[in-house]
Amino acid sequence: MDPEALFREHLTLIAQRAEAVCRRSGVTGQDAEDFVSEVCLKLLEDDYAVVRKFRGLSTFPTYLTSVIGNLFRDARIRRDGKYRPSAEAMRLGDLAVRLEKLIHRDHHSFEDALALLQQSAKTPLRRADVVQLHKQLPLRSPLRSAQTEDPDTIPSPEEADTAITDAEREAKLVAAKEALRRALEGLPDEDRVIIRLLYLQRMKVSEVAAALGLPQAPLYARLQRLYLTLRKRLLREGVSGDIIDFFSSP
């Protein structure tokens, strides 16, 4: 099958598999969306080079699962460096290795790591057993001690007002991102990919058209319709116009 057609046919599955990898590792929100976009870009690169490597030795969904897993691993290495489990974790077994990864590589709290392990376990995990494993793992990085507040660092009233304003705007941006995520979910698969490439990956319209094999001229009108659709949905959810314009600015 033509690689472009194969990519388009499996767009929904690609997003689902990428989101599933993120979910299993506790990656959520904007980080998860960015990874989905990264996967799409990687599959589009060099005229669908990764898709062209599929030789039919397995099903294409199985091939996608392997590719996406490798991309996620590479993204983690770029961010955190190559992780190696401690000798003690390896001696204690697979569960200890996974617990150590979640806490020391992925920066989860113990409670979050326990919940993730319980979700993926084939048989029920006893909390007491995991607590015992955790106690046996070596401390791989020092905890930062709380610092006493230096009077010289206490902000002035003007600085405090600025901090409040910044915090309020940040809260609005977080709410807007969640509203945007919901609005994107209501779009067809190809429209969702177009928006992510254009606004999240900051690609040019010509680059989006080339990547997806779409004629460039009609794409401008299509983007205008998509923008108006998203804008109406975000305004209905109470997102202010200036925040919407912030998201859509190049």
What is the molecular shape?
A: globular
Helix content range: over 70%
At CATH level 3, the topology of the largest domain is: Arc Repressor Mutant, subunit A
Instruction: Enumerate the spans where pLDDT stays under 50 for 5 or more consecutive residues.
Output: 141-164
**Rg estimate, integer Å:** 22 Å
What would the average pLDDT be, to the nearest integer?
76
Number of strands: 0
- Which structural category do the helix and sheet elements fall into? mainly alpha
The CATH architecture of the largest domain comes to Orthogonal Bundle
The CATH homologous superfamily of the largest domain is termed: Winged helix-like DNA-binding domain superfamily/Winged helix DNA-binding domain
Tell me the β content: under 5%
CATH class of the largest domain: Mainly Alpha
If helices are DSSP runs of H or I spanning 4 or more residues, what is the number of helices? Answer: 13
